[in-house]
Design goal:
Mean pLDDT: 76
Structural class: mainly alpha
Largest sheet: none
Shape: elongated
Number of strands: 0
Length: 85
């Protein structure tokens, strides 16, 4: 009886944590199941750290920022191509 009660308790605790994490994700506090951070955001974060540790690599980060600024000014989404031309 005790192992069954223990197993049931672990499953109930896991379910409660799952719903707690979904609620927290709905509030925007964490990324859990539905929304995932973009890979670009993670890559840019690592580039920032690398630019601090290796200043000679800072030009890569500056080029990426310039590219994003150019895309934002043109109004096009990154990765979109002209289909009419």
């Amino acid at each position: 009886m005790k192992p069954a009660l223990f197993t049931l308790s672990v499953l109930a605790a896991g379910a409660m944590l799952h719903f707690l994490f979904l609620w927290m994700e709905g509030k925007g506090w964490i990324y859990y199941k539905r929304d995932r951070p973009s890979r670009t955001a993670l890559g840019n974060a690592f580039l920032e750290v690398q630019s601090i540790l290796e200043p000679d690599k800072k030009h890569v980060l500056e080029v990426r920022k310039d590219e994003r600024r150019d895309v934002a000014e043109s109004g096009d989404k990154e990765g979109e191509q002209d289909e009419g031309a």
